[in-house]
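Hi R.,

Here's the chain you asked about this morning:
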Amino acid sequence: MNSRIWLKLGPVVGAVALSALALTGCSQGTTAPAADTSSSSSEEAEPAAEATLATADSSLGTIVVDSAGMTLYVFDKDVADSGKSTCEGECLVKWPAVVADSDTPVVDGVTGTVGVITRTDGTKQVTLDGLPLYYWAGDAAAGDTTGQAVGGVWWVVAPNGDKIAG
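And the predicted structure, written out as tokens:
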């Protein structure tokens, strides 16, 4: 009698076990690409083979951008060569720091002195002529310069490191 029950239930138990294994495999497969996607996003923001800083033509003249063409800014409240950023907390929500993976960011067309400082959270922020560089959260696409002159203290930066105040 037990063998009859097993003959009827055995395939069902086997199918359930195989389904559970398949689902486990699927969920692991879904997790791996998600991790790969997030790492490629950070690679796009800071590619090793591409320029961390580059230049682009804009209505303000030739400006400094990242490798994706996003405009970079300097902040009047920062002090050149101080080794620190004054933009913290809520400021960083609107003005994210330009970060690098190494102490020697790659540049293309930028003539000012490029370096890095270590932020209070341990990340390396890119500097141009000693001033930390930032993005503006209001810029939605490459070439946008909507952060220019915000509050009279945020400025698009020229390849030589000068702020563009015009």
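The first strand starts at residue 54 and ends at 58.

Let me know if you need anything else.
M.
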